[in-house]
Fold this protein.
Amino acid sequence: MFEDRKKRTELSELGEFGLINFLTKNIVLKNSSTVKGVGDDAAVINYKGKKTLLSTDLLVEGVHFDLAYYPLKHLGYKAAIVNFSDILAMNAFPKQITVSIALSNRFSLEAIEEVYSGILLACDNYKVDLVGGDTTSSNLGLIISISVLGDAPARDIVFRDTAGKGDLLCVSGDLGAAYMGLLLLAREKEVYKSDPTMRPDLDGHDYVLERQLKPEARADIIRLLNDLQIKPTSMIDISDGLASDVLHICSGSKLGCQIYEEKIPIDPATVSTSKDFKISPTTAAMNGGEDYELLFTIKKTDYAKIKDNPALSVIGHMTEESSGVNLISASGTMVPVTAQGWDGLR
Amino acid sequence: MFEDRKKRTELSELGEFGLINFLTKNIVLKNSSTVKGVGDDAAVINYKGKKTLLSTDLLVEGVHFDLAYYPLKHLGYKAAIVNFSDILAMNAFPKQITVSIALSNRFSLEAIEEVYSGILLACDNYKVDLVGGDTTSSNLGLIISISVLGDAPARDIVFRDTAGKGDLLCVSGDLGAAYMGLLLLAREKEVYKSDPTMRPDLDGHDYVLERQLKPEARADIIRLLNDLQIKPTSMIDISDGLASDVLHICSGSKLGCQIYEEKIPIDPATVSTSKDFKISPTTAAMNGGEDYELLFTIKKTDYAKIKDNPALSVIGHMTEESSGVNLISASGTMVPVTAQGWDGLR
């Protein structure tokens, strides 16, 4: 085909974000109703009064999930949650989703019902309506594509590229647990493959498994910030790992950042599991991804409002762009942060 | 896995629409902003003043397209067009899309650029903004998922389930050509496989090939109806074939229908190609699909406004539900219409 006649650039050379940038760099917006297109967690569309928010995610078997250890209902739940999280990261609430599923004949109706039951449970929990979709066959395994709409008053919407110098960098909940859950499930799959009579050794790992298999989107944090009368100066959800997502805020806002390793919130269960795998918990937090916590910046003057809140941690502050994005270890060593998050195109 | 422990229902027993009905029958809408959810070409969402319309489609390699004869740019164009057509079929105009693509390493960057260039060309031609998306790897081939938003004043929106008894059934353009184009491409692929030195014999088939490889969505017809001051009483786009889509209007509206075979608009090029394949042109129109023409009903009193318009054909009229949905042949024979459109789940 024609690609053989042209210079061939490997997709892996660009990575996912590079590819998206490359593909979308020449787009010119044409409708006055399009306030914000490609480049943030969701698109902003002005359909009178409130803004409409739209985002989409695609989950592919063998890339985003392994059905050997991922229950179908959990998969459906997670597919919805990752979309809700994108809207929440704009400081808005998800309202509607469409669900497209492609599947092969190896799936029974009951199997797809399980996927849907997970999606619908997530919709119930987050008060979101499933409003459409598409179902088709696939020679290729299971594929789930969800698009989500949300709305918010224009003044409430928070972008990722609007952090200010000196702002405090904050994160909700704790990080790294979802990745530990993934390693645990992958290990038990290998054990099972070598000896199917072995019982999975998952006892005592409830927390990290739940973080992997039934993640939640932090609607509660958006409500909390609202109650505290804090509007973040920038925000993103942590899907690819703290490293990758803080770099999005920094590059978008044309700022640097200092993150203090000891301030990164990590659950004791994550620390304990990370020892089993001989992985630093900081590495899990920085590069593991799939935590779906919110990463945001606030003005220094809002510090008093959050400093005693156990659901929120201040982990650093925004600096000049020329200072770079750095992780400061407990001993004071400074390490530049680079994106090593999971890369869907390698 | 768990599905082995339960009764197993084969997906092929339900078909695509049966599956969607089954999966969505228990959905209860929760937001007052959700005016219309699953069940039409697009969801209707009331975000103040104008309504927001949202629809989505998933295209899977090996199911919806064969890259052996489908140029990537054309594929991108078509992927966008099928979504635009869904919004137009609500008597509204598409305004924004999100594009999610999953692809394997066998595709180069230049290949994906071709897909995108087709999508962006369609966006230019129809004044639609690409506002987001997702790109990921796939072990599985190429998958394109597009979601589309449009808007319209509430009073303009036309559903598929609101036809009235005695209304005239109309169709834009002509039918069956896209299917003939598909058969032609599939035949030439077989010839090529058996002897790669053979040149494809596609001369003189420009029209049916273009209808398959570069379909258009009928925005012009929506503008025409508006100019003629006709608001259809119901409307749908013909994606699965006239038979399947007229059945949607009839079952939704709880009506029957009589379609006159000789009134179905079929291009001479379609008739000519259908002879080569020993297929009746009516069969191509009824069951071929992918024409993306608009099928709609109007009040009898609007007949004078359209009767001399070459872009529109009156092909029948709506009857009582108990009369059934029937095709009347030139000789007067009445044949019940059943859906034999392409079924993505078989």
About this structure: The domain at 168-336 of chain B is CATH 3.90.650.10 (Phosphoribosyl-aminoimidazole Synthetase; Chain A, domain 2). The mean pLDDT of chain B is 84. Residues 259 and 316 of chain B are 4 Å apart (CA to CA).
